Amino acid sequence: VEQASVPLLPVSHRKGLLFFVFVGAVAGLGGGVGLAFALEFVRQGLISPKAAEQRLRIPVLATVSYKR
């Protein structure tokens, strides 16, 4: 066990801050775009009545139209 001592030089916390912020921003942007493309690629929704019939192997009796 040693006694605490006062450092002779100040500690610089901002030494690589800009680099880490830049790397984090690029990684976040790249990850977000990659995730968006991956989710769109493996989308599990039923887009049309024909796709629903093919996937579920049952006939579609009615549809509800989307009105904007």
Gyration radius, rounded: 28 Å
Write the H/E string, N to C.
HH
Contiguous helical run count: 2
Mean pLDDT: 87
Principal-axes geometry comes out as rod-shaped
Q: What class do helices, strands and sheet pairing give? A: mainly alpha
Query: What is the helical fraction, as a range of percent?
Result: 40-55%
Which consecutive residue ranges, at least 5 long each, have pLDDT under 50? none
Q: Distance N terminus to C terminus?
A: 73 Å
Instruction: Let me know the number of strands.
Output: 0
Main sheet characteristics: none
- Give the strand content: under 5%
Secondary structure elements and pairings:
Elements: H1 17-41, H2 49-56
Verbal overview:
There is one protein chain. With 68 residues, the chain is an all-alpha fold. The protein is 49% helix and 0% strand. The protein contains two helices and no strands. The mean pLDDT is 87.
In short:
The protein is mainly α.
List keywords for this structure.
single chain, 2 helices, 68 residues, 0% strand, mainly alpha
